[in-house]
Amino acid sequence: MFYTSLLQDLLRTNSVEINLFLYAENKYVRPLQQLLASLGFFTFPEKQALEQTNQIFDHTLLKAIKKFNQKNKISGDGARLKAYSLWRMLQCQEIIPFFKIIASYTDDTSGWQKETHFLYDPLQKVLSFLDYEEETLSQRMERFCIYHGLIFPTDSLGTAIRQHLTEAISMYLGDYFNAPENTENTANKPSDNEIAPTLSIIETPDNKISINDGQIQLVLTKKDPGVYWMGNEEVGIFLQRYPGEVNPGISKICLQVINQVARNEGKLDAINTYDQAFLSVGIFQWTLGTSNNAGELPALLKKVKIKYPEKYATWFTPLGIDIAEETDGTTGFITLQGERIATLEQKEAFRRPFWAFHFWKVLMQPEFQAIQIEHAHDRFKNFYFKPEPKGLPYPLYQIITSSYGVALLLDMHVNRPGWVNPCIGLALAENANYASPDHWGTQEEAQILDSYLRIRATYSDGRYSPMTSSNERANQIGLAKQNGLLSRERGSFEYLTNQWEGFGMKGNRQMITPPPGYEPDDYPDIEQ
What we know:
4 domains; elongated; 22 helices
């Protein structure tokens, strides 16, 4: 285009600032207006669009330059145009044809990695513009997918990836820019930028990744093969701050048990994407599940969707996340853009910083934090209240009834769920001279717990290492006992509020019973 040639001459002769400044009137102002108009930052009055005379560098043009600089993170007030600003404008203008090809392409995308494919060159150009400079197109696309939480396409290039590419370019363009819409199933759909704004993701030299969506920032720490954020929001603080959000049916002592176990396991806003279960969130680090296995995180999201459907629609539906039909109250799978996420390869995409950031934003919401506590409360139904527990002569709710002891059981069940019963079974064997639990007092239970703690510290079934930091975790819960937050007295645990009178009485004057309406089959055992 003629106007770009004139402006390129200014760059070649290093005379940009000499000719383009506020109130300047010369042959270069009109081309600058045209360039900014093509990028969506400037509009001509109708009569002015027909004129071919020189124009004045006025405040309307200055405003357009400022907007461009802001979107492209260029400093300066724009009153004297910098050479770098002009160079960047021309760079943006050069990428538009390739951007439009990707945005409007509707033919077969199979084989997009081959040099002969129509999209190969546009993809190369667009990814290079976005600072993905790896040697091959495949490598560039893979890193793009990593930062945008997308599944790397080995064959066809899906609509979601092309939309993310076009939205990533759009963030550098103005409000008046209109690209052709992709006709492939996009009618009446909000753009990704409307529902999940393009993120600013910056890697820092100190092994951090800073993510900003223009409203809030999160700094994650890298840990291969993902990232993590330890979190700040504690259960105890939440209970003080939002008492009205907590299910009143959960007893205060059970809330204290959950609080103490969470202090060992995670904060309400904790998240990591580096462990073997791909994505772990919250106080009990609920996950997508290892390998091809079901995970507990989908069940947590299902609770959110049932109790807060409007919130769920705001938090997750725009990201394309839903719950697979077979998900129950304990485990299951999510779907992404209608695709069931069940394989190792599919789950691997959720290690991306993109997903860590968006889940973290939801983890900060009081309603979601309250659901975490409810989900933790329901966990007792998966093991503690089972009437015929594997390998045990009595149900756990008959064996251990102190709030301190129940906290220790829950602590292990979160970390090594399949090993609670074997460890308690061995502890019972060491104290085989005891009669049935109906006749135990606090001293007998304390002896069982002492044996259990020693056993669980080294127990392994040969597939996995022993429980993580077993003694340290036990000591942390022991501090709560010393501080009067938990009790070693038998019968001091209460699952539901006012489930019985006489809470906290010493000895065995009151037995714990399963909650009303409890159906064990609805809460399957949780394995490793």
